[in-house]
Specification:
- It is built from 6 helices and 9 strands.
- It has 291 residues and is an alpha+beta fold.
- The protein folds into 2 domains: 2-57; 62-290, 2-Layer Sandwich (Heat Shock Protein 90), CATH 3.30.565.
- A 5-stranded mixed beta sheet has the order 4-6-7-9-8. Strands 1-2 form a two-stranded antiparallel ribbon. A two-stranded antiparallel ribbon has the order 3-5.
- Helix 1 packs antiparallel against helix 2 (110-141).
- The chain is elongated.
């Protein structure tokens, strides 16, 4: 801009103009450059936001894919757990259908009524087993809310143990020790995925025979979930690589190498820690979650 003054002669008549100003050409150029830079930054920010959304979606899909892969390992065992009680329920119903006419004709047949009572009691036990398996599946596979919700860690771990026990084999024993722990704000489905990965790894480490411990405890400020096995253990070099994407100790392509990496990420998003200790014949994993 410019500042101007009128020049007057001795008579007071205007005889000229003085103009004092500053060349704003460079300032205008700088302003244009700043505006262009701002537009570029806004465009870059939008690209980053889109990339973040795509990454988050891919991460969610990866977690879900790993969950489905883990569930796939359980399908045969869970089907067997359901088919076994279902089989003797069906057999008992066939037995009852066969005996019913005879019982109607001879209601005082004590031996017949005793057999019927046993069949009914056995069928009730079978139905209860099936119901327990279905409840475990519902607890494990329930979809997570967008926000954190209060959940019972003991319930989630117990339901996961129930399913893993179906595929652990007769020579792998899973012991459960549940302490008094407060409810924790979390995504329950994600934590169940962590428990499943750790339990399957523990069972696998036992190589067909051994003991697995699933334990919970709390000191009031945090909850510690411990998975311990009496399997082959790991050396220092293997222990140092745990959690690396695509690194797996499962032979013959039995694992994707993503289970522990995803588990570590899930626990970290919950503000917790995943700790490993191992030596020949013993491995301990601790999931520490803030209350």
């Amino acid at each position: 801009g410019y500042t101007t003054w009128l020049l007057r002669d001795e008579a007071g008549a205007v005889c000229g103009v003085i103009a004092l100003g500053l060349d704003l050409g460079s300032a205008m150029t700088l302003t244009a450059q700043l505006a262009a830079a701002n537009q570029q930054l806004e465009a870059t920010l939008k690209q980053l936001e889109r990339a973040h959304a795509e990454l988050k979606a891919a991460q969610t899909q990866l977690v879900q894919s790993e969950k489905m892969r883990s569930l796939g390992q359980l399908v045969a065992g869970v089907a067997h757990e359901i088919n076994t009680p279902l089989g003797y329920v069906a057999n008992n119903l066939a037995f009852l259908a066969e005996r019913l006419p005879a019982l109607r004709a001879a209601p005082t047949d004590e031996l017949g009524w005793h057999d019927v009572s046993d069949a009914i009691r056995e069928s009730q036990t079978g139905i209860e087993r099936i119901a327990a398996i279905v409840r475990a599946l519902r607890v494990f596979a329930r979809p997570d809310e967008d926000s954190l919700v209060p959940a019972d860690v003991n319930e989630g771990l117990a339901s996961t143990v129930r399913m893993v026990r179906a595929v652990s084999g007769p020579r792998v024993t899973i012991h459960e020790e549940y302490g008094q722990v407060p409810r924790v704000f979390c995504h329950p489905g994600e934590l169940n995925q962590v428990f499943l990965n750790l339990l399957l790894n523990a069972v696998h480490a036992c190589r067909g025979a051994g003991t697995v411990l699933a334990q919970t405890m709390s000191d009031g400020t945090s909850i510690t979930v411990t998975i311990r096995d009496t399997g082959i253990g790991m050396d220092a070099a293997t222990l140092a690589r745990l959690g690396e994407p695509f690194f797996t100790t499962w032979p013959d392509g039995g694992g994707t190498g993503l289970g522990l990496a995803i588990s570590r990420e899930i626990v970290a998003r919950h503000g917790g820690q995943l700790r490993f200790q191992s030596e020949p014949g013993r491995t301990t994993v601790e999931v520490i979650l803030p209350v």
